[in-house]
Amino acid sequence: MDDGGYYDFLEVKLVQSNLRFRWHVGNEPEILSIGQNLSDSAWHKVRISMFGGRVSLQVDAATSSKTSNGEDKQLGNYTTNSYLYIGGLPLWYTSKMATLALPSVVFEPRFSGEIKNLIYAVDEFAQPTNQNMMAYKDVRLTQADHCLHENPCQHNGLCVSLDHGAECDCSATRFTGARCQQELQDEVVRFWGSSYLSVDIAKAGPKSAPLLAELDTISFYFKTDASNGLLYFSAYEGNYMALSLLNGELKLDLRIGTGRLKTGVSKARFNDNEWHSVRILRKSEKLQDSSVFVCKVTLEVDAVHRERWTSPGVYSLLASSYVFLGGVSTKFVEINKIFQYPEISKNSNFIGCFKNAVLQADGIRLFLIKLAKEESALVSAHGKFEYRCADHSNNNIQRDVILGQVYEDTTSGAVTFTRPQAFLSVPGFGDERVSQLSLRIRTLEPDGLILYSAGQGGHFFGIELYDSHLWLHYNLGTGHVKLRMSGNRVDDGQWHYLSLTRKGGEGSYSLDNENHQFNIPGQPKLLKEILHFTIRIHFS
Length: 540
Hints:
The protein is mainly beta. It is elongated and about 105 Å long.
């Protein structure tokens, strides 16, 4: 196989009963040899891996590897590379040797023997699979391939034909068992706005070095009713990738080298408290006949929305020093000031659930939630979180309200407003001249109505969230009065406790244990009506 007759090629052959792998990717041709007496009529397993500059050749239990020098670590281009030929080249290549990167391969002796289980991925988006013949001459298909007539592997498991029968490789699926028949348990975590997962990159790659990869992928499921929040962030020096929710839409902000992309999936909202799948793939690729590298980016959501972009750069490998799921740390906020990443702070941490989060960088595969739950030194969980995603649906909330337990039974949890049009009505104040109210609130929204109680003749009493602060409004017959209650922002995803008491023309309130007094001018009238709550907020 070569890059279409330019420079790069791969060649595997038997030489005096040992296996020799020769390749040319950007620099001088290089060779790895391994094995002895491989012409013994027994089956031998061969595995070749090329991740960045690291090349490994394995035959049975023996392995040989080396690191290539130079910046170019990619084999040609998927759009121009030749087919993969097994056992020899077609005879017509003898008259078209100029189209080969290694013309002498035409004169190599042809392979005589059997080959099975040829497995590789046909492009950067596909999983490795058994390959079928496209064309052939003077070869025959034997009946020894146990995967040929009946594939026993379920759920897209990879069938591998061995001497004793077929075996299933389930590693690329969410299933296990001899036939990939048993579904794995979902790895789930719930965040509450102050929590996140972080990856210690130094323990995933070389010590004190970033995680380097030619191709990396992050995939996960998420579920939330919050409009805004940071889902994923990775960075290295001035380069970064940030995926977040903004007004319910997915936004991707990415900078690599000299290129920057700001895009996402618009005209669709993903804060509907349903599970959504996300997969982001980045691949570093060198342009043909050029020293310029590009990063090809693919964003796939729910297997329906797929967006692709290409970003120019001055690099050959992708790097990550910081990786966060669901939010960022206070330390990173300080680092952010140095590298000028997007405006990201702990205020934008995610509220909701993740499941099955996997970060893959070439040959390294990290199951982030699983590692955090096992308290691995590689992945750490911070803040308030739980490894489950309890159902906080409207049906449960309505059932609690009907039973009258939502304010009395602390086990019923918080009331969550999951839609912009959501509201909750409860009985009003029992005493016409005395009003007492207490509640806890938590939100990431800067604006919205907290509660409202209307009386007769235009009288009202209400609390709103405006420009990230709480405001008290009332008109009890003496005119509209507006009072700011909070000194600090309350749209920080943290719980805030508010209590309020009115006795005739005097009132007091406490917000997060800070006490304040206020007066109602004139002769206030009575107020005894239903209270209405409405905002995308959590009450407890």
